[in-house]
Amino acid sequence: MSETITVVGTGLMGSAVAKCFARAGHRVTAWNRTRERMAPLSQSGIVLEPDLPTALRRSRLLFLIVASYEVAQELLQTVTEVLADRVVVNGVTGTGLQAREMAEFISAHGGAYLDAGIMCYPLDIGGPAAMIKFGGHKTAWEQYSRTLLALGGASGYLGSDPALPNVTDAAMAGAFYNVALGAYLEAASFGATVGLKSADLAPIAIHMMGLLGRLLRDEATPAIDRGRYETDQATLDVYIAAVRHWREELLNAGQRCGLMSANLHNLEVARAAGYGGHSIYTQFLTNGVERKAS
Amino acid sequence: MSETITVVGTGLMGSAVAKCFARAGHRVTAWNRTRERMAPLSQSGIVLEPDLPTALRRSRLLFLIVASYEVAQELLQTVTEVLADRVVVNGVTGTGLQAREMAEFISAHGGAYLDAGIMCYPLDIGGPAAMIKFGGHKTAWEQYSRTLLALGGASGYLGSDPALPNVTDAAMAGAFYNVALGAYLEAASFGATVGLKSADLAPIAIHMMGLLGRLLRDEATPAIDRGRYETDQATLDVYIAAVRHWREELLNAGQRCGLMSANLHNLEVARAAGYGGHSIYTQFLTNGVERKAS
Hints:
The structure is a homodimer. Chain A is α/β, with parallel strands linked by helices.
């Protein structure tokens, strides 16, 4: 079904989203504070509207993708009268709390709020590698899910709490992805001490991410979600010995081992909590407020 | 071509290797210190030989896979007279230095040495997901590469330095893989504070590892291997702001953020070295002995 959609903010990601909606046959209006930056969109059949209230009035579905929650809040404060009966999808990155506050603000002015955690690059939008995780107003989601899911092949709805996308983003992009990238760069620095190139190591890292994916799906997930930490594989104690060994080798080669040292510490905290004979997934229990294995 | 191969050590990995060789049509002899542990191999057409010198004499190609370099060294000291003209492939995990010492020892007794870094699980051996990286004696490698590559679809030869497989293993299994796993467990701990399950997060992590693999191959590798750190994407300064933001959110939820804090520190060290306006891959330059961008 063809929708009428207004995209607010036409940076790299906003432009990718607007073009993807247009390609899918929707009637798209775009607005951007700096008018000139919208120009490249005119060739995609998108209406460029310089007046924000006019742009918002044109569509029931509004997709916001500006620099920050502060900017989004500031813009929306000027147009509260047009929010009634609108569905506001917010692709801005922020905290779970900011998303909940934004949801209340939209709701107070008669609109429905969906938060969107965009976990891919602009060039991925519309393709199978694109992932946008939505959360918030369930009825609004049900109404627009087809339109929104077409933005990315790996997208989905996390639940009615509007905080979920931002929490997922901080967890996955922040705590997982960028640490994993940093870990690769520690590995590559060490490899370089014996002449290994990133071209030698990157294919191995890609291969090992395949193994890690299988481990997360088949072993870590059942352990964590069922609270079962017995193991017939390497125990935490055995694993700590291996990690110490690897770390010594890197230290001897003059590496700082920032992430490796922090990882060893995480493992030692789990052991100090009494999990030395359990699986390495017990780190899950001791990375924050302590939880108990069931 | 059918070879005669002796496998020394029949733990989980040694047994997998011996069975894979037998399946490929080679004549395989196995030896293990604890005889009873060899028993399951008798059904695979493998000759179980309780006497080590006899087992070694039977084959020119010897595959060692015991608990440690110390154990390997101790065993080989008792059979130095049978090492002449043998090719010893060592699958034991150790340091680069240990591998170089072992290579000298084997060479001093007239043999050729290949080190093997096994970067997969026993159940993978022989399949496309198996990866064993070899290093050492070039002529021996050329002679047995077909036989050895059949152990794993993603295997290969790193070069004539016998240290390369152990260094690669410490880099990839130690500095990369187990830190990435720890990072997932920090992410999952945080996700649990708003009720997200590992079953929700693992598919996202798997998806993001696809993106990370592409980044490592197409962006990090050319940057590192050419020493080019200019960027038209997010600079280190911009990235640091995002990482601080994510970390604050986790801290506010009561997380310890061990790895995230270490990662932030790695980024800040790169910035302190003057790379704030360059790409995030400059971490590579400041993770150990400082290097300069070319």
